Amino acid sequence: MIFSAPIFLYLLPSAGLPVLFHFFLKQKKRQLLFPTLMFFYRTDPKLNSRRKIHQLLLLLMRVLLILLILLGLSRPRFQSAMQMGGRISVVAVVDNSGSMSDLVGNERTKLELAVDGAKRLISALGESAKMSVVTLVEDSAATFGDSLTSDRESLLSGLDGMEPTHATGNAGRVLARAFKLIQSDSAAGGVVHVFSDLQESEWDADALPAELAGAPIHVYLHRIESKIRQQANVAISSVQFPRQKILPKHPLNIGVVCRNNSGVTANIRLNSIDNQGNKNTQAVVLEPGRSQIVEVGTNPNAPGYHWLRTWLEGDGFSADNEAGIGIFCEQTAAVLFGGSPEDFGVLPTALSPDQYGQFTGMTSTFGRIDQIPQAVSERPILTVTTWQEIGSINQDSSVLRDYVEKGGNLLIVPSLKITNAKGQTPAWIGADTKMRSSYPRGMKIEVLEQRSGFWNRIREATGAVSLDNVSVFTFYPLELSEGCTALFGIDSERVIFAHRKLGEGNIYLSGTAFDPRWNTLPLTGLIVVMAQSIALEGTAFDEDTMLALVAGERPEGIDASGGQLEVLSLVGDPIDFSGRMNEMPAFPKSGVYLIRSPDKEQCVSVRSSEKEGVEKFLKGSQSPALAQIAHTIVDYDPTEGLQKYHYGQSRTVELYLPVVLLATLALLAEGWLANPIRARAQETKPSESPVTAEPMDISVAEPEREVPIGRGAG
Length: 714
Fold this sequence. Notes:
This protein is an alpha/beta fold. It folds into 5 domains: about 5-75 and about 655-705, no CATH class; about 80-225 and about 615-655, von Willebrand factor, type A domain (Rossmann fold, 3-Layer(aba) Sandwich), CATH 3.40.50; about 235-325, Immunoglobulins (Immunoglobulin-like, Sandwich), CATH 2.60.40.10; about 335-535, Class I glutamine amidotransferase (GATase) domain (Rossmann fold), CATH 3.40.50; about 545-605, no CATH class. The protein is about 20% helix and about 30% strand. The chain has 13 helices and 34 strands. The strands form 9 sheets. An 8-stranded mixed sheet has the order 15-14-16-17-25-24-23-20. The protein has a 5-stranded parallel sheet with strand order 4-3-5-6-31. α6 links the parallel β5 and β6 (about 215-225). α2 packs antiparallel against α13 (about 655-675), α3 runs antiparallel to α4 and α11 crosses α12 (about 525-535). The longest helix is centred in the N-terminal third of the chain and has 27 residues, at about 45-75.
């Protein structure tokens, strides 16, 4: 018997108060006057004995009522131990996180030992035991139901197909589920067996509250030994998606961050393959504790969803070596020109030779400058206008500014057609032009800030950054404010091309037109690279359509409007799911998945967890995560019998409700005994007509003494 509030047991002696009152606090006797004819009334000779029995029963009910109330307040529970024939409830937690794929003795993995331990535990339990299995990492390929069962065959068959994942487990979430399974059974209490390597990232967490267990549950953690690796371990720690618009036939590079988490120099290979069958391998040398960004290239040939699979080879641990990368390639993107084609020279051709996107995926649209505020609502990837036109809409430029701040790109160039004075440039542009300069023989142009992101993209596309053969004949020197970066010009005092970041977008400022009469850029292939780099920048990784997760995580923030979601696998283990958002499973392994809602699609990229390769495991006999819950850590022994851990363990039955019901019955019985139904009046009345007599003062004599008759509890 167990009491949750044993302090009330100290009050149990108070149940004897009714006995004390009955025997020691009787009402004092006093003499009474009564008629002498009372001796002639008919009386029951058994009346006195019945009255004594009645009072003893009443006394017993009062004592019993106090006892039951105190027992109920102490919250009693009854345990039925196994050696007493009790039925045990058991949950086996199997660690299927990435670290369990490591090899131990006899060339077996830690997960194989954990599965064998769970199988031996299930086989050793009796027919009356109820049990279940929970995995440390949620995996839709390994499910064992939502309740305890006595069907051992189904549990054993479910363990046969278990595989290690690429994720890090959550000990608190898994134990809460195990406790809930035990508590949902008909009687609370039981045992939880955990088969794990006890990696610190999973078990060295904040202490779980004692209330989580709820009932007397003991947790046994069977620690599986981990061998020290001799080889280096390199993990894919993150993926850097390109910050550009993804269009067909535009190559892009994706950064894969590799980190050496060991103390040994690593010589590895980063492999990749995309959905078009393109393969690539790069050799990487990493010093201990260092990270390196390795760029993986791809070139989508059609609109739609595309994927890449990357993985490392050559290190000592593989569960943190994989990453799935998903991208969405749009069919076309619009470039809006605020003016006529004659204003912009060769720039429209460099962006879209046919204006319909057949070659570059970009379409060109021309219109008046006063139509720009309406046109930018369609979110073009680039808006091009002239200094003359931007000055004419100074008071109506708020829509254009909002477009830039939200991720749009704006390019301002001199007009080839309009040479008259321009209006006042809006202050948010951050720059203006000075007086026009002309050099008939031309002036050499030089790169002013080679470390800028603009020149880095040019370098990736062409292999070098050079303007040695470019000359300028006519230009407007730029007057730049703070925050602008000069990209090229004659010198630092005569800047011709500059960049300014505004919000999430970009503003490019040119003091020269893209025409052979103004400079020689149109005569080189550099104009095409520059123009398309400007157009594609900044609108890159759309978080509304592309998500990046670590294995074991669930996507958040998906608005399905109460409808059904569907998950499809593009690359990686299949997860065919259809249901509501709160029912969506986690992604246990790396891959690329497509989530479809009634009005939207999202591409999810999943990489393996970097934590799984870290060789830090719990030592000692206590787990910080279970500091407030009864637990024992033992080293796992494949030859050890597990039945011994259940001796003395029990299932617990809550007795609070039965005690309350008994107290209620005792209260009803006490009330009935304290107010009995009176005997018929005829039994106590004389059969003859009354006779009057004078009252007498009578006392009843016993041997040797005289005892007055009076009222009393006795």
